[in-house]
């Protein structure tokens, strides 16, 4: 979205960077979250970040430093509290319950947007 303008009749005119112009009554602006990793100096301990500042992790939440794991929003997966809790629990089971193969599969995370109409997703997407 390049520009949003409110017209006198209350409608919104939206212009995108590809030149598409649309008129709508309501706009939902959902831009996501940004991890606050910039000032942690993770590069000093060998932790690699992606272009958005997320810690790059494998399926077991291991970072590029074998002594550092990352779960939750800073890992850049599904940015949902229940997902972070589930990933953290599996990490705890791996570290303290000798369950080396326990990990959270992200392929079947259910999500919902409490809007009207409701929006829900589960399963693989074209991007995965």
Automatic annotation (TrEMBL):
It holds the Pfam family Pyr_redox_2. GO terms for molecular function: flavin adenine dinucleotide binding; glutathione-disulfide reductase (NADPH) activity. Residues 1-88 form the FAD/NAD(P)-binding domain. One of its GO terms (cellular component) is cytosol. One of its GO terms (biological process) is cell redox homeostasis. The keyword Disulfide bond applies. Transmembrane segments: none annotated. It comes from the Eukaryota. Its cofactor is FAD. InterPro entries: FAD/NAD-bd_sf, FAD/NAD-binding_dom, GSHR/TRXR-like. Keywords: Disulfide bond, Oxidoreductase, Redox-active center. Belongs to the class-I pyridine nucleotide-disulfide oxidoreductase family. This is FAD/NAD(P)-binding domain-containing protein. It comes from Oesophagostomum dentatum.
């Amino acid at each position: 979205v390049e520009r949003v303008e409110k017209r006198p009749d209350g409608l919104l005119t939206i212009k995108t960077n590809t030149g598409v112009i649309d008129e709508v009554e309501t706009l939902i602006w959902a831009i996501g979250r940004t991890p606050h990793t910039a000032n942690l100096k993770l590069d000093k301990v060998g932790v690699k970040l992606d272009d958005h500042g997320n810690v790059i992790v494998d399926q077991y939440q291991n970072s590029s430093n074998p002594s550092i794991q990352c779960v939750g929003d800073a890992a850049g997966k599904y940015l949902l509290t229940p997902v972070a809790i589930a990933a953290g629990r599996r990490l705890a089971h791996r570290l303290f319950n000798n369950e080396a193969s326990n990990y959270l599969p992200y392929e079947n995370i259910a999500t919902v947007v409490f809007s009207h109409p409701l929006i829900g997703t589960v399963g693989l997407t074209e991007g995965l």
